[in-house]
Amino acid sequence: MIQTHDLTKRYGKFEALNSVNLSIEKGKVYGFIGPNGAGKTTTMMILSTLLSASSGKAYVGGYDVEKEPKDVRHILGYMPDFFGVYDNLKATEYLDFYASAYNIPQKNRSALIADLLELVNLSNKADSYVDHLSRGMKQRLGLARCLVHSPEVLILDEPASGLDPRARIEMREILKKLQGLGKTILISSHILPELAELCDEIGVIEKGRLIASGSVPEVSVDTRGISIMQVKVIGREEVAEQILSSDPLVRRVDNKGNHFRFHYIGSPEEKVYLLQKLIAAEVPVTHFADSQENLEDVFLAITEGVGN
Amino acid sequence: MGNFFTNPLISKELRERFRTPKTSWTVGLYLFVCGAIIIGFMKIIANEQTDLLGSGDRLLVIMAAVHYALICFIAPALAAGAISGERERQTLNILLTTHLSPRRIVLSKMLTSILFMFLLLIASMPLYSFIFLYGGVAPMQLVKLFLFFTVNIIFFGSLGIFCSTWIKRTSISTITAYGIGFFFVVGTGVILFFLMNFITYWITDTRMTPMDYPILEWIASINPCIVGLNILEKNLMGESWTIFSQYYWIIFTAFYLVLSVILLCLAAYILKPVRRPWSE
Question: How far is CA A5 from the centre of its chain?
C-alpha cells in the first residue's frame, strides 16, 4: 500500500533522508521510530504529497506521489505533528468544512460527522467551539478530520505528542479501532511505548537512514545477540550497580532503586558467572532473569553506534 | 471553477469573519471615519461660501480621496494575511492535502478578502447621497468612480494574496504589500514627475515637449491618483495628451486587471507543494 524506493531528500548539503526503502502492506500498522530530526516527518510529508523528494520514488496505493498527487489525496488521510484549528468554528462545522473540501455530498455529511464524532468520543462536544477543546480533544478531532473521506491509508505524525497519559490511552484505543477497520496506518513517534502494542511492523530511522524494518520479532534485540535482563535485590544496591556497570558484557544499566534492567551480550555461561559475582559480593538477589523487551530496547540496540 | 461559489473555503471564511465582533467594529469605524470627514468638510464649505449650489463636486473629490486612501490601507492588509495566516496557524498543510487545488484556495481567499472590502464600500454608499444635496455631480461620474474603486480593490487584493503566498510571515507580507502598493500609487507619479522635468530641462531639442513622449502618457494612465482625478474631471495632464485623454480608463483597467491575474497565477503556482510546471 505504501512503498518507497531509494527515497532521498536533501536541503542543500544536509541529507534529511538517505535512500529510504519502505514497504507497507495493506491493513498493516507500521510504526516509524526515531528521535527528533531523524527524517520521520520528511518521509511522511513526501508521502502526503506536501514535499518533493530530491531523488527516489514513493507510491501510496500504487499512485506515484509526485505524478499523481490528486489520486494519492483521495485515499490518504494525513495528520501532522503540529496543527492548528479554526478559532471560530464549532466541532461539527470544522468537520463539515473538511467534508465539503473532500467533495462529500451535503446530504451525507451530518450522519458522517455524527459517526466520526462518536468514533473519537467527542459526540458531547459537537457544538463546542474547536478553540475551547483541550489538546487531547483537538488531536482526536484532527484524527476525525483525517477520516472524513474514508481514506484507506492514514499517515499520523506523532498523534499522541503533548498529550497527558489518559489522552494518550484514549488515542491508542481509537487507533486500535481504526486498525480493526482495516486501515493501513503509518504512525510515527519518538515515545516508544506508545507504539508497542499497536504495530504489526516497525521501522527504525536515524539520521535519515532506515536502519531496521520488519515485524517486531524480526527486528528484536534477540536477533542481534543481545538479551534484556532484570535483577532485583533487597539491599547493597550500590554494590550491585558497581558490579553490573563494571562488567564488560553489560550495557545500559537502568537503575530503578532495588531493580536493575540492562542489555547483556554474553553467553548463558557468562550470565551464570555474573550471578555468581553478585552472590560472592553478598548482594541479596531475589530475581535474576531475562526480561520482556520493549520498543525502547529495540531502538537503543539498533541505533547503537549509528550516530558515530 | 464549476462550483466555485459553493466553495467550502468561501463559506468557512465568511462564517469565521462575520462571527467575530471585530468585523462589526471595523465596518462601524470605517463608516465613522468617512462620515466624520464628510461632515467636517460640509461644515468648512458652509463657512467658506454662502451659495452652496454646485459645490457637490468638491465634496465628491474629498469623499473619493478618503475612500481611496482607506482602500489602499485596508485591502492589502485584509488579503496579506490570507495564506500566511493559514501557514502561521498550521492549517495550510492540512488544506493542501484536501481536494481543494492551490488555484481554488487562492481564488477563494482572494474573493473573501475583497468581498469584505466591497461590503465596506457598499455600506458607505449612502454617504454619497450628501453630494446630490449640493448638486454639480453627474450620476455617471459616480458609476465610473465605483468601477475605479473596484479595479483598485481587485488589484490590492491580488497583491496582498501574492505577498501572503510568497512570504511566510503575515507582518512581513503586509509590509511588502504596502510597499509594492505604494510604488504603484505614489512611485509611478514620482517617476512621471521626474521624467517630465528631465525632458523639460535636459532635452535640448526645443521642438520636443513632454507631450511628445508616449511613454509618459502610459505611465500617467497607470497612476491611480491621476486616473482618479481625471474621472473626477480634475485633469492634471491637459487635453494635448491624446492617448491619455481618450484611453486612460481602458489602459488603467486593462493594466491592473492583467497584473492581478498574473499575481494570482503566480500565487497559485507558489502555493503548490510539489511544483511541476508542465503538469496539470
Answer: 21
B16 exposed, middle or buried (CB, 10 Å; 0-12, 13-18, 19+)? middle
Given strand A227-233, what is the order of strands in its sheet? A250-255, A259-264, A227-233, A285-290
Q: What is the pLDDT of residue B1?
A: 47
CA angle A77, A100, B276 (to 5 degrees): 60
Tell me whether residues B96 and A51 touch, CB distance under 8 A. no
Lookup: cell for A278:
553478585
**How far is CA A263 from each of CA A228, A250, A292, A303, A305, rounded to the nearest angstrom?**
5, 6, 11, 14, 15
The 3-state DSSP class for residue A17 equals strand
**C-alpha–C-alpha distance, residues A175 and A165, integer Å:** 15
pLDDT in tens, B252-272: 899 999 999 999 999 999 998
Q: Out of 3.30.70.100, 3.40.50.1820, 3.40.30.10, 3.90.950.10, which CATH number does the structure's domain A222-292 have?
A: 3.30.70.100
Looking at the DSSP bridge assignments, the partners of residue A154 are A77, A185
In whole angstroms, how far apart are CA B205 and each of B196, B202, B208? 14, 9, 6
- Residue A98 CA to residue A77 CA, distance in Å, equals 11
* Domain map (residue ranges) of chain B: 23-271
Mutate: best of B6, B94, B95, partner A, most A CBs <10 A = B94
A203, A30 Cβ separation under 8 angstroms: yes
Q: In this complex, do B99 and A73 lie within 8 Å of one another by their Cβ atoms?
A: yes
C-alpha cell of residue A198:
499497536
Which CATH code is given to the segment(s) A2-215?
3.40.50.300
Indicate whether this complex's ipTM tops 0.85.
no
> Model confidence over B47-67: pLDDT tens digits?
776 666 666 677 888 888 888
Of A20, A13, A62, residue with least CA distance to A45? A20
Between β-strands A29-33 and A227-233, what pairing exists: parallel, antiparallel or unpaired? unpaired
Q: Where are the domains of chain A?
A: 2-215, 222-292
Is A28 within 8 Å of chain B by CB?
A: no
Q: Which residue, B189, B165, B186, is CA-closest to B176?
A: B165
Closest to A92 in 3D by CA, of A128, A50, A63, A121: A128
A200-234 residue pLDDT tens: 888 888 888 888 788 776 766 655 667 778 888 88
**Hey, are the CB atoms on B97 and A78 less than 8 Å from each other?**
yes
Nearest chain B alpha carbon to A103: B99
Pairwise CA distance, residues A95 & A159, whole Å = 18
Residue A71 and residue A74: Cα distance in Å, rounded?
5
Chains A–B, number of C-beta pairs less than 8 Å apart: 77
Chain A residue at shortest CA distance from B99:
A102
The three cell numbers locating residue B106:
487562492
Q: With contacts defined as CB-CB under 8 Å, which chain A residues touch B93?
A: 45, 48, 50, 78, 80, 83
